[in-house]
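#lab-general

N.A. 3:47 PM
ok so I finally got the sequence cleaned up, no stray characters, all 287 residues accounted for. can someone with queue access submit it? mine expired

B.Y. 3:52 PM
send it over

N.A. 3:53 PM
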Amino acid sequence: MIHSMTAFARRDSQGEWGTFTLELRSVNHRYLELALRLPEEVRALEPRIRDKINQTLGRGKVDCNLRYQAPLQGGALEFDHDLVGKLAHVSREIDGIVYNPAPINAFDILRWPGVLQLPVPEPEQLHAAALALLDEALKELVESRGREGDKLKELIAQRCDAMTAIVAQVNTRRPEVLARARERLLARLAEIKGEVDQSRLEQEMVLLAQRLDVEEEMDRLSAHLDEVKRVLDQHEPVGRRLDFLMQELNREANTLSSKSQDAETTRLAVDLKVLIEQMREQVQNIE
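B.Y. 4:20 PM
back already:
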Protein backbone atom coordinates (compact mmCIF):
# COMPACT_ATOMS: atom_id res chain seq x y z
CA MET A 1 0.00 0.00 0.00
CA ILE A 2 1.36 3.42 -1.01
CA HIS A 3 1.55 6.01 1.79
CA SER A 4 1.78 9.74 1.32
CA MET A 5 4.03 11.67 3.69
CA THR A 6 1.55 14.56 3.97
CA ALA A 7 -1.10 14.03 6.64
CA PHE A 8 -2.63 15.45 9.84
CA ALA A 9 -4.14 13.85 12.93
CA ARG A 10 -5.65 15.30 16.12
CA ARG A 11 -6.84 13.46 19.19
CA ASP A 12 -8.20 14.61 22.57
CA SER A 13 -8.38 12.64 25.80
CA GLN A 14 -9.99 13.65 29.07
CA GLY A 15 -10.22 12.03 32.48
CA GLU A 16 -9.95 12.70 36.18
CA TRP A 17 -6.25 13.37 35.58
CA GLY A 18 -6.98 16.31 33.25
CA THR A 19 -7.04 16.84 29.46
CA PHE A 20 -4.54 15.98 26.72
CA THR A 21 -4.65 17.34 23.16
CA LEU A 22 -2.29 15.79 20.62
CA GLU A 23 -1.64 16.99 17.08
CA LEU A 24 0.54 15.19 14.52
CA ARG A 25 1.52 16.85 11.25
CA SER A 26 3.73 15.28 8.61
CA VAL A 27 5.08 16.54 5.29
CA ASN A 28 7.48 15.08 2.76
CA HIS A 29 11.13 14.76 3.73
CA ARG A 30 14.02 12.64 2.58
CA TYR A 31 14.33 10.96 5.97
CA LEU A 32 12.28 10.76 9.16
CA GLU A 33 12.70 13.98 11.14
CA LEU A 34 10.81 14.51 14.40
CA ALA A 35 10.02 17.75 16.20
CA LEU A 36 8.41 17.22 19.62
CA ARG A 37 6.70 19.76 21.87
CA LEU A 38 5.75 18.19 25.20
CA PRO A 39 4.42 19.62 28.49
CA GLU A 40 6.65 19.33 31.51
CA GLU A 41 4.30 16.80 33.14
CA VAL A 42 5.26 14.15 30.53
CA ARG A 43 8.70 15.37 29.47
CA ALA A 44 10.20 12.07 30.63
CA LEU A 45 8.20 10.28 27.91
CA GLU A 46 10.18 11.84 25.06
CA PRO A 47 12.36 8.75 24.32
CA ARG A 48 9.34 6.43 24.28
CA ILE A 49 7.35 8.81 22.07
CA ARG A 50 10.24 9.02 19.62
CA ASP A 51 10.51 5.23 19.56
CA LYS A 52 6.80 4.79 18.84
CA ILE A 53 6.88 7.27 15.95
CA ASN A 54 10.09 5.76 14.56
CA GLN A 55 8.56 2.28 14.62
CA THR A 56 5.38 3.48 12.89
CA LEU A 57 6.60 5.90 10.22
CA GLY A 58 9.39 5.47 7.69
CA ARG A 59 9.91 8.95 6.22
CA GLY A 60 8.61 12.48 6.58
CA LYS A 61 9.06 15.61 8.67
CA VAL A 62 6.76 15.04 11.64
CA ASP A 63 5.64 17.66 14.18
CA CYS A 64 4.21 16.24 17.41
CA ASN A 65 2.53 18.78 19.69
CA LEU A 66 1.10 17.51 22.99
CA ARG A 67 -0.74 19.92 25.29
CA TYR A 68 -1.92 19.21 28.85
CA GLN A 69 -4.40 20.91 31.14
CA ALA A 70 -4.65 19.87 34.78
CA PRO A 71 -8.11 19.16 36.21
CA LEU A 72 -10.04 21.93 37.92
CA GLN A 73 -11.74 20.11 40.76
CA GLY A 74 -14.65 21.43 42.81
CA GLY A 75 -14.16 23.45 45.98
CA ALA A 76 -11.95 26.42 46.69
CA LEU A 77 -8.88 26.98 44.56
CA GLU A 78 -5.59 27.04 46.43
CA PHE A 79 -2.77 29.42 45.64
CA ASP A 80 0.79 30.06 46.77
CA HIS A 81 0.45 32.77 49.45
CA ASP A 82 4.19 33.39 49.68
CA LEU A 83 4.52 33.86 45.90
CA VAL A 84 1.53 36.21 45.77
CA GLY A 85 3.03 38.29 48.60
CA LYS A 86 6.35 38.57 46.80
CA LEU A 87 4.61 39.58 43.54
CA ALA A 88 2.60 42.24 45.37
CA HIS A 89 5.74 43.59 47.09
CA VAL A 90 7.65 43.81 43.80
CA SER A 91 4.65 45.46 42.14
CA ARG A 92 4.58 48.22 44.80
CA GLU A 93 8.30 48.86 44.38
CA ILE A 94 7.85 49.20 40.63
CA ASP A 95 4.90 51.57 41.16
CA GLY A 96 7.26 53.86 43.10
CA ILE A 97 9.64 54.05 40.14
CA VAL A 98 7.39 54.09 37.08
CA TYR A 99 5.58 57.33 36.21
CA ASN A 100 1.78 56.90 36.24
CA PRO A 101 1.85 53.10 36.77
CA ALA A 102 -1.05 50.91 35.62
CA PRO A 103 -2.90 49.12 38.43
CA ILE A 104 -2.44 45.37 38.77
CA ASN A 105 -5.45 43.20 39.56
CA ALA A 106 -5.95 39.76 41.02
CA PHE A 107 -6.38 38.09 37.63
CA ASP A 108 -3.01 39.41 36.52
CA ILE A 109 -1.46 37.72 39.55
CA LEU A 110 -3.37 34.47 39.02
CA ARG A 111 -1.94 34.19 35.50
CA TRP A 112 1.59 34.21 36.90
CA PRO A 113 3.15 30.72 36.63
CA GLY A 114 2.96 28.78 39.88
CA VAL A 115 0.41 30.98 41.67
CA LEU A 116 -2.51 28.60 41.35
CA GLN A 117 -1.94 25.32 43.18
CA LEU A 118 -3.59 22.82 40.85
CA PRO A 119 -3.79 19.14 41.78
CA VAL A 120 -1.08 17.06 40.13
CA PRO A 121 -2.12 13.51 39.12
CA GLU A 122 0.18 10.55 39.52
CA PRO A 123 2.88 10.49 36.79
CA GLU A 124 2.10 6.85 35.90
CA GLN A 125 -1.51 7.79 35.22
CA LEU A 126 -0.53 10.74 33.04
CA HIS A 127 2.07 8.74 31.12
CA ALA A 128 -0.36 5.92 30.37
CA ALA A 129 -2.98 8.38 29.10
CA ALA A 130 -0.46 10.24 26.92
CA LEU A 131 0.91 7.06 25.32
CA ALA A 132 -2.58 5.70 24.65
CA LEU A 133 -3.49 9.00 22.98
CA LEU A 134 -0.33 8.81 20.86
CA ASP A 135 -1.31 5.34 19.64
CA GLU A 136 -4.71 6.65 18.54
CA ALA A 137 -3.21 9.68 16.78
CA LEU A 138 -0.59 7.58 14.99
CA LYS A 139 -3.28 5.20 13.77
CA GLU A 140 -5.26 8.14 12.40
CA LEU A 141 -2.15 9.61 10.78
CA VAL A 142 -1.26 6.31 9.08
CA GLU A 143 -4.83 5.93 7.79
CA SER A 144 -4.73 9.49 6.43
CA ARG A 145 -1.38 8.79 4.78
CA GLY A 146 -2.88 5.67 3.21
CA ARG A 147 -5.85 7.54 1.75
CA GLU A 148 -3.58 10.19 0.25
CA GLY A 149 -1.28 7.42 -1.00
CA ASP A 150 -4.16 5.76 -2.85
CA LYS A 151 -4.78 9.03 -4.69
CA LEU A 152 -1.09 9.34 -5.62
CA LYS A 153 -1.00 5.73 -6.79
CA GLU A 154 -3.96 6.33 -9.10
CA LEU A 155 -2.41 9.48 -10.57
CA ILE A 156 0.94 7.77 -11.18
CA ALA A 157 -0.74 4.72 -12.77
CA GLN A 158 -2.68 7.00 -15.12
CA ARG A 159 0.54 8.67 -16.26
CA CYS A 160 2.21 5.28 -16.74
CA ASP A 161 -0.66 4.29 -19.04
CA ALA A 162 -0.32 7.55 -20.98
CA MET A 163 3.44 6.95 -21.39
CA THR A 164 2.83 3.38 -22.56
CA ALA A 165 0.55 4.74 -25.27
CA ILE A 166 3.25 7.22 -26.35
CA VAL A 167 5.86 4.43 -26.52
CA ALA A 168 3.51 2.52 -28.83
CA GLN A 169 3.22 5.59 -31.08
CA VAL A 170 7.00 5.96 -31.24
CA ASN A 171 7.42 2.28 -32.13
CA THR A 172 4.78 2.59 -34.82
CA ARG A 173 6.64 5.50 -36.39
CA ARG A 174 10.08 3.89 -36.26
CA PRO A 175 10.01 2.13 -39.68
CA GLU A 176 8.71 5.27 -41.39
CA VAL A 177 11.33 7.46 -39.70
CA LEU A 178 14.16 5.13 -40.75
CA ALA A 179 12.79 4.89 -44.32
CA ARG A 180 12.66 8.67 -44.65
CA ALA A 181 16.20 9.02 -43.32
CA ARG A 182 17.37 6.44 -45.85
CA GLU A 183 15.67 8.34 -48.67
CA ARG A 184 17.31 11.59 -47.61
CA LEU A 185 20.73 9.94 -47.56
CA LEU A 186 20.22 8.43 -51.02
CA ALA A 187 19.07 11.78 -52.35
CA ARG A 188 22.20 13.48 -51.05
CA LEU A 189 24.40 10.77 -52.53
CA ALA A 190 22.65 11.10 -55.89
CA GLU A 191 23.71 14.72 -56.01
CA ILE A 192 27.35 13.63 -55.82
CA LYS A 193 28.89 13.18 -59.26
CA GLY A 194 30.68 9.95 -60.04
CA GLU A 195 30.55 6.40 -58.77
CA VAL A 196 29.53 5.67 -55.19
CA ASP A 197 31.22 2.77 -53.49
CA GLN A 198 28.48 0.26 -52.73
CA SER A 199 30.17 -1.18 -49.62
CA ARG A 200 30.67 2.33 -48.26
CA LEU A 201 27.02 3.07 -48.93
CA GLU A 202 25.96 -0.01 -46.98
CA GLN A 203 28.19 1.01 -44.07
CA GLU A 204 26.62 4.47 -44.02
CA MET A 205 23.15 2.93 -44.02
CA VAL A 206 24.03 0.73 -41.06
CA LEU A 207 25.51 3.67 -39.12
CA LEU A 208 22.47 5.79 -39.90
CA ALA A 209 20.13 3.10 -38.63
CA GLN A 210 22.16 2.75 -35.44
CA ARG A 211 22.10 6.49 -34.78
CA LEU A 212 18.36 6.87 -35.34
CA ASP A 213 16.87 3.62 -34.08
CA VAL A 214 15.42 3.87 -30.58
CA GLU A 215 14.18 0.30 -30.18
CA GLU A 216 16.43 -0.40 -27.19
CA GLU A 217 15.48 2.86 -25.48
CA MET A 218 11.77 2.14 -25.93
CA ASP A 219 12.22 -1.41 -24.64
CA ARG A 220 13.99 -0.11 -21.52
CA LEU A 221 11.37 2.60 -21.04
CA SER A 222 8.59 0.00 -21.23
CA ALA A 223 10.44 -2.19 -18.73
CA HIS A 224 10.81 0.74 -16.32
CA LEU A 225 7.08 1.51 -16.61
CA ASP A 226 6.25 -2.11 -15.78
CA GLU A 227 8.55 -1.87 -12.77
CA VAL A 228 6.82 1.33 -11.58
CA LYS A 229 3.46 -0.45 -11.66
CA ARG A 230 4.91 -3.45 -9.82
CA VAL A 231 6.43 -1.24 -7.12
CA LEU A 232 3.13 0.59 -6.64
CA ASP A 233 1.58 -2.69 -5.46
CA GLN A 234 4.21 -3.42 -2.81
CA HIS A 235 3.34 -3.21 0.89
CA GLU A 236 6.45 -1.38 2.06
CA PRO A 237 8.00 2.09 1.71
CA VAL A 238 8.81 2.54 -2.00
CA GLY A 239 9.48 6.28 -2.35
CA ARG A 240 13.23 5.93 -2.95
CA ARG A 241 12.76 3.11 -5.45
CA LEU A 242 10.23 5.15 -7.40
CA ASP A 243 12.52 8.18 -7.34
CA PHE A 244 15.28 6.08 -8.92
CA LEU A 245 12.88 4.82 -11.61
CA MET A 246 11.90 8.40 -12.45
CA GLN A 247 15.58 9.13 -13.16
CA GLU A 248 15.81 6.10 -15.45
CA LEU A 249 12.64 7.05 -17.31
CA ASN A 250 13.94 10.55 -17.81
CA ARG A 251 17.23 9.20 -19.16
CA GLU A 252 15.47 7.18 -21.89
CA ALA A 253 13.19 10.09 -22.80
CA ASN A 254 16.21 12.38 -23.18
CA THR A 255 17.94 9.83 -25.42
CA LEU A 256 14.82 9.60 -27.59
CA SER A 257 14.76 13.37 -27.92
CA SER A 258 18.46 13.58 -28.84
CA LYS A 259 18.17 10.85 -31.50
CA SER A 260 15.00 12.18 -33.05
CA GLN A 261 15.16 13.68 -36.54
CA ASP A 262 11.40 13.67 -36.86
CA ALA A 263 9.14 16.47 -35.64
CA GLU A 264 6.39 14.12 -34.43
CA THR A 265 8.85 11.90 -32.54
CA THR A 266 10.35 15.00 -30.90
CA ARG A 267 6.89 16.09 -29.80
CA LEU A 268 6.23 12.65 -28.35
CA ALA A 269 9.55 12.81 -26.46
CA VAL A 270 8.51 16.15 -24.95
CA ASP A 271 5.17 14.65 -23.92
CA LEU A 272 7.04 11.81 -22.21
CA LYS A 273 9.24 14.22 -20.25
CA VAL A 274 6.21 16.25 -19.14
CA LEU A 275 4.51 13.11 -17.79
CA ILE A 276 7.74 11.98 -16.08
CA GLU A 277 8.10 15.35 -14.37
CA GLN A 278 4.51 15.17 -13.15
CA MET A 279 5.15 11.71 -11.72
CA ARG A 280 8.43 12.83 -10.16
CA GLU A 281 6.63 15.59 -8.24
CA GLN A 282 4.08 13.08 -6.95
CA VAL A 283 6.77 10.53 -6.05
CA GLN A 284 8.49 13.12 -3.84
CA ASN A 285 5.56 12.82 -1.42
CA ILE A 286 5.53 9.01 -1.22
CA GLU A 287 7.00 7.33 1.84
